Amino acid sequence: LIKHAEQIVQVCANNEDMLVGEAMKNIAVMKPEEGTSGLSLVIDREGNIADFGTDAKLEAKYANWSFENVLDASGCCLLPGLVDAHTHPVWAGDRVHEFAMKLAGATYMEVHKAGGGINFTVEHTRNASEKELFVLFKERLQRMVKAGTTLVECKSGYGLDVENELKMLRVIERARRDDNINIEISSTYCGAHSVPKGSTADETTDDVISKQIPAIKAEMEMGKLHVDNIDVFCEKGVFDIMQTRRILEEGVKAGWRINFHGDELNPMKAAELGADMKACAISHLEEISDNGIAAMASARSVAVILPTTAYILRLRAPPVRKMIESGVPMALGSDFNPNAFCLSMPLVMHLACVNLRMSMPEAIAASTINAAASLGRSETHGSIEVGKRGNVLVIRAPKWEHLVYQLGGQNDIIAAVVCRGKIA
Ligand code: NIG
Ligand code: FE
């Protein structure tokens, strides 16, 4: 039981699976009636939301329930647990030296072509054991939880061969099954994240299709692994449109949702490809075309916008306003990776509002219900609805907008993070 709250942000009120266009501006916020004490929320033993409403109503209704935990949320607001739609959180080594190079003017692709970037991380990740990677990963997940994330998409993609991609997916799986880690995970296979040293894009595509995917499927059939999504870095000099299509098709055959990187540094018509393939989500989209915008809107493919990357690499901003106004469903992600070291969705929302001109309601919708939709989970996640997962963020502030407003201070006002009914 959480009681005496000032506001409950529901994000969407009618069990909608995502919020699009104007609807993103009208998120539902419940407030106590004049002269009454506050709002309460009840989570059942299965970890799902059982009820919410005024203190008075819930006190009467649940008078003979015995609660395992009672949280006093006086002076606090309740929001749905945040959903981070895009991260690369399993890796060893860091790239702080590259941050200096980029500050001095080097572009992402210059660093990449000089053997840095993803391939630098691949080398360190290949040399790390499963156990070492798990320790690093777990610490990062815990930092995400502290920043309010309760569901996160996690990619492989720093292994780039059968053995090392499996190693990364096993690390993700171990965290998924660990009861001491209070965050839910959607796992993504991204074996086509880069072309490994000594190989070509065509050879890598063949390796992904004929070796890596079958090996993962075999482990899934044995019940050892679970994979939700398939990803490719569709980019000039990495994987082209044809290679991307082949890999995504193979992923669909394996039963995975399409959720890939497109139109980031160069216009590739990746949005058009994704819409044509009924992609669940496409990330980045700084260089999306007008046709791509129209295609994504009609396919209802979710655009996963990553404000940290555009900020750090000083890229052209993705045309967020145009996309929202054209009816493209929009989500946000931290893109946590060694290039963009950010574990905080509140900071991501802040950047989205200031740099990409989103409103605060749009940013919270994009970080909850729409991010859940990008992972195919909006029936169970992303809003405060009876029957949905008991993932709730409690912030010490009189209005929920403080979570976006307090630049860099967001963690200080997070009073509690509840995941599946457990205080994380
Ligand atoms: O989303 N663009 C490709 N992948 C990541 C970067 C990964 C890396 O640089 O290690 C991204 O920004
Ligand atoms: Fe990424």
From TrEMBL:
Pathway assigned to this chain's UniProt record? Amino-acid degradation; L-histidine degradation into L-glutamate; N-formimidoyl-L-glutamate from L-histidine: step 3/3
Catalytic reaction annotation: 4-imidazolone-5-propanoate + H2O = N-formimidoyl-L-glutamate
EC number, UniProt record: 3.5.2.7
Q: Which InterPro entries match?
A: Amidohydro-rel (IPR006680), HutI (IPR005920), Metal-dep_hydrolase_composite (IPR011059), Metal_Hydrolase (IPR032466)
Q: Which residues form the Amidohydrolase-related domain?
A: 78-423
Q: Which SUPFAM superfamilies match?
A: Composite domain of metallo-dependent hydrolases, Metallo-dependent hydrolases
Instruction: Give the cofactors, semicolon-separated.
Output: Fe(3+)
User: Which keywords appear in this protein's UniProt record, sorted alphabetically?
Assistant: Histidine metabolism, Hydrolase, Iron, Metal-binding, Zinc
Which protein family is it in? Belongs to the metallo-dependent hydrolases superfamily. HutI family.
- The protein depicted here goes by the name Probable imidazolonepropionase
